[in-house]
Amino acid sequence: MTSTAPKAIRIIKTWDWGVRLFHWLLVAAIALAFLSSEEGSALSPWHGSAGWVAAILIAFRLLWGFVGGEHARFANLIRPSRMAGHVRGLFAGRVHASLGHNPLGGIAVIVLLALVAATTFTGITGGEGGHEAIAYILLAMIALHVVAVVAMSFLTRDNLIGAMITGSKKTTHFPRLRTHSQNSTVAARAMADRKTVGHRS
């Protein structure tokens, strides 16, 4: 009787500390902003502060999009060449886990950042009518984002919410991907082989 040893499950660092800190602080700031939006409520004095925190976070994310980790950078969020194939795959029922944001997810991030920036700008400058309208569009986009995250987590068996908390994903979803430790081992073996060949020649 033969048995096949299970493949070792390794952890891949995906989201750096800047992305995760930004994400959850922005969630808290937006939640507080919406909960404090009613005048006369117990939380209403915090509405302006929540807006300023969101504005500072957006400024940080714009900077981090150029100096942060691989999957934090805007260059990896906007990938038009992969969009058509990704959308066709979704309609055909071919759903695959993505190490970072998938093409639609990257566009969603850009749209959400723009909406948060527009909401905070109109709130700070006093454009009440536009501020409220954009805020409700932002709320609808957030709801769509949450639904998409839950749906993709279920379809791909990849815990996207957990990954945004821990910053890591499992290699079981990316069998062709080598971890940093695996790459180091391969490189070390190749170097040892070259030295052996050199000694024999």
From TrEMBL:
Transmembrane feature ranges: 21-37, 49-69, 104-127, 133-155
Residues covered by the Cytochrome b561 bacterial/Ni-hydrogenase domain: 15-167
PANTHER family xref list: BLL0597 PROTEIN (PTHR30485:SF2), NI/FE-HYDROGENASE 1 B-TYPE CYTOCHROME SUBUNIT (PTHR30485)
Compartment annotation: Membrane
Family matches, as InterPro entries: Cyt_b561_bac/Ni-Hgenase (IPR011577), Hydrogenase_cytochrome (IPR051542)
Organism encoding this protein: Brevundimonas nasdae
Pfam families the UniProt entry points to: Ni_hydr_CYTB (PF01292)
Name of protein: Cytochrome b/b6 domain-containing protein
Keyword Transmembrane helix: yes
